[in-house]
Design goal:
cell membrane, T2SS_GspF_dom, membrane, 338 residues, 0% strand, transmembrane helix, transmembrane, flat, mainly alpha
Length: 338
Amino acid sequence: MSTVAAGALLGLVLGVGLVIVIYRSPPARKVRLADRLDPYLRDTPVPSRLLADGARRGGHSESDSSGPAGGRPIMAGGTAGRFGLGAVEALVRPFVEDAARRLDGFLGGRVALNRRLVQAGGRTPVEEFRVQQVICAVAGALLGALVLAMRTLFGVGPPALVGIALVVAGAAGGILARDWWLTRAIREREDRMLMEFPTVAELLALAVTAGESAIGALERVSRLTHGELGTELRLALADAHAGASLVQALEGIATRTSLPPLARFVDGMAVAIERGTPLADVLRAQAVDVREAGKRQLLEAGGRKEIAMMIPVVFLILPTTVIFAFYPALVSFTVIAQ
């Protein structure tokens, strides 16, 4: 590495360090309301550790396939302390949280994001999701900075301008990758709900036919099922026990999801409860409709897979067959021409 490149790198590190020190110094740091109230609240009694343990056991990820930055809190103090990273976490946390707030203000769409997080299971708050996006952006920027460092240290790689563009593209790609993973988690969760829906509808129909009321049938089925739709039924029952009407609680299921079959199912149950229509017949009809819709989706997926299977046939198998068919004749013609 040349002397000029080494001096530029050291100057860049020194400049970034000075900017961080000045920016986070007490005179330049904005005093928040929480900082003003903190000295007066320090003598608050510490809550029971049993509550903290219960909250820790109750927390779980947004989905099993929610990606490298799932619903579990990114900066969990217990794990960091166990591995001796508590000091690093304490230093990094304010910067990450500040970057998450700035990213949230820059991207906006907080209401739509909150709705998507609810559709993904509702276990990840918006602030935590923004923190995960910041961490993914930093990881993507580090990948781009690695290319720039290779160029600076060893003179191998793209030009400096391209390296800077890679850093910016890596940061943006990290943010978009976390958003894409959320979309994938929503899609997979809704697919699981569609798979569970016919069975749940038939169980509800059986319970109503046996003489259960609508709330009794929902309570019985929610105890027997353990999937995503069972969780939604338990949330609806919790809303109903909290004072909402059963129709409003069922409409909350349709609000928390974006599945048209489930919305039609909720509307059918609401109409049957309000107008006195036989609920068992409505539930059976809804289950039959969902099974037919599932069959149509399987046929459509099979058609798409059939078209996708043509790609290796046309571009791999067919050229290989043509080569094996014409190569002997080509060799014969070459020998004869000699």
